[in-house]
Amino acid sequence: MHRRNFITHARWRTTASATLALAFAFALSTAAAGALAQTTAKPEGLTLSQAFEAAWARQPELAALAARRDAARAQQQAAQSWTPEPVAVEVTGKTDRLNRNLGTREYEAGLAIPLWLPGERGRSQALAEAEGRAVESRTTAAQLRVAAAVRDAWWNWQRARADAATAQGQLDNAQRIAADVGKRLKAGDLAQADQHQADGAVAAAQATVAQTQAAVIVAEQSLRTLVASPGLALTAGPADLIAEPEPGAAATDMDTHGELLALKDRALVAEGVAALAATQSRANPELMIATTRDRGASGEAWQQTFTVGVRIPFGAGPRHDARTAAARAETIELQAQLNLERARLAGERDSAKARTDSARLQLAAAERRAQLARESRGFFDKSFRLGETDLPTRLRIEAEAAEADRQAARSRIELAAAISAWRQALGLLPQ
């Protein structure tokens, strides 16, 4: 017994300074984390769908959507009008009052009516309709970009919260073991070095808790930046996760993807611009209708005449060629970009599906491991209480069980995040 106490005291002398340093570092980290945690309230209730809706409500695309729709409707109405430009009224008057003053008078009133070029009206209508569809698909694509950012921030937040919950559980178990060691130390069953070892495990768990709490605050701040102003408290849902539903077979059609629809509509707009530019080889002709009322001198009878004419501009030449070539280049570029985007999204879809399948297998294995680790923890806890297992073994089993619980919690989040990424690749909004 004396030899054991000698060895125990020697071990305590080598570890005492390290334990005190760790405890001091934990005190500082805990104080910092507590100060940060006081600034964030976490009432119940936020979901991924609600986070997306809050983030989308702050986007400039949504603020400008009503104005863009009004512009598209106005463009469609303009394309359906009888003239490409508004009708102009011309009124002139002539008199000799300032020189001879013989009573010569002439008054003319006329209309200048712009005329559609051959095929211009129909192509203008097609372009206006394509621009209207492009407004809606552009909005959908913007929603998907916001959804991607929200999903990424959301699941990072959930990972941080799961790590913090696991660390807190590890701390609770370490404190329980340390309390049990303290009781046995008083009873003379264990040495002072065992107490210090147990206290060191508590300090290490406390440091992990402080670290994970800081990670939660960082992740929460990233999510808060998307859903609300930085100074607004973020509501936090319960710790248990509710994943998005898996996409059905009907949702795998890539032709309905918002990003592809936006590119398709942009390409159709470019094609419409090119087709319209091809017809606008010159300025619009004008039909002129005028009436003239005049007299040669005072006392003469007034004469009434009518004039009908057509104004036909010459071809635009190089200007028209440049405009047409630029519109065709835009069409070609968008078609090529559409093909690349289709291939990219197909790859993301397949990768997300494979990631989901892998995450499901990993979750099953992690839950099995966690179950076995919890059972082993119970066995060794009982054995340690009976004095059949030493403290290092008990702490090792506790660390293995904590790591198994952390991996199981992470695996549940990774499966939910993989399903969310799969839905994102298919162009589905958060649900």
Strand order across the biggest sheet? Answer: 1-2-3-4
Count of discrete structural domains? 1
Number of strands: 4
Helix-residue proportion: 55-70%
CATH topology: Outer membrane efflux proteins (OEP)
Mean pLDDT reading: 81
Bulk shape = rod-shaped
Order of helices and strands, N to C? HHHHEEHHHEEHH
- Report the CATH C-level class: Mainly Alpha
Question: Beta fraction of the residues?
Answer: 5-15%
Low-confidence stretches: 1-44
Assign the CATH architecture. Answer: Up-down Bundle
- Given the structure, what is the number of helices? 9
Characterize the main sheet: 4 strands, antiparallel
The class by helix and strand makeup works out as: alpha+beta
* CATH homologous superfamily assignment: Outer membrane efflux proteins (OEP)
Distance between the termini: 66 Å
Summarize the structure.
This protein is of the alpha+beta class and 431 residues long. It has a single domain, classed as Up-down Bundle (Outer membrane efflux proteins (OEP)). It is built from 9 helices and 4 strands; from the N terminus they run H-H-H-H-E-E-H-H-H-E-E-H-H.
Detailed description of the structure:
With 431 residues, the protein is α+β, with helices and mostly antiparallel strands. Helix content is 68%, strand content 9%. It has helices spanning 2-37, 48-56, 60-63, 65-79, 120-187, 192-227, 258-279, 318-385, 391-425, and strands at 88-95, 105-114, 286-295, 303-311. The chain has a four-stranded antiparallel beta sheet with strand order 1-2-3-4, with no helix packed on it. The two termini are 66 Å apart.
